[in-house]
Amino acid sequence: MAGLPGAARARSASPGSPPALDGSFLLSPLGGLMCAQAVLGLLVWSLIAATTYHLHAAYGWVMFVSLFFWILTLLFFVTYLLQLHQKFYMIPWPLVLMIYNAVATVLYLTAFVTCAAAVQPTSWRQWDYNRRAAASFFACVTMITYGVSTFFSFRAWKGLGSNAATSQVSDHA
Fold it and tell me: pLDDT digit string (tens) for 64-107?
């Protein structure tokens, strides 16, 4: 599990111990990217929610994608911050995180394209246009952060050159 914060402490954490904060996770690339995804995702769905999105079906999809992945990102963030992933060592967390980030990247791409295509510059409400345009921009930036997270998650899953299967077995044998 090279590349994931707290991987060196995985063997020392006992299943019955209480959750502890992992400060090194916040300084890791995955931790920083998860913080950025949470903030950017919050911007996307709050900007769309501040408009009359219910009148346009396209914005319902953008709201679903942004809110769904915002909640899941917060859950993954808390899981890694409290080192709960070490208590459930039988789950291949690097693989789960890589798949999650890849799916989020693809769905945020669809949300970004949908949001950008639905922005009408001739909107009768100027503030709706500004918020929707800003939401399109932030959806694009959020999609990029999920793409970068997919790259780092892939590297962690591959173990930076080691065999991922043997590293799973040797960590908890």
Answer: 999 999 999 999 999 999 988 888 888 898 999 999 999 999 99
pLDDT at 166 over 50: no
29-49 and 57-81 are packed helices; what angle lies between their axes, rounded to 10 degrees?
A: 150
Other residues' Cβ atoms within 10 Å of the Cβ of residue 102: 17
**Cα-based distances in Å from 122 to 84, 118, 126, 127:** 49, 11, 8, 12
Q: How far apart are CA 48 and CA 115, in angstroms?
A: 9
User: Which residue stretches of the chain are H helix?
Assistant: 23-27, 29-49, 57-81, 93-118, 126-158, 164-171
Residue 101 has a pLDDT of 96
**pLDDT for residue 170:** 44
Average pLDDT, the chain: 82
Q: Is 48 helix (H, G, I), strand (E, B) or coil?
A: helix
From 25, 70, 29, 38, select the one nearest 155 (Cα to Cα): 29
Task: Write out the two tokens for 107.
Answer: 């769905």
Token pair of 150, please?
A: 């997919």
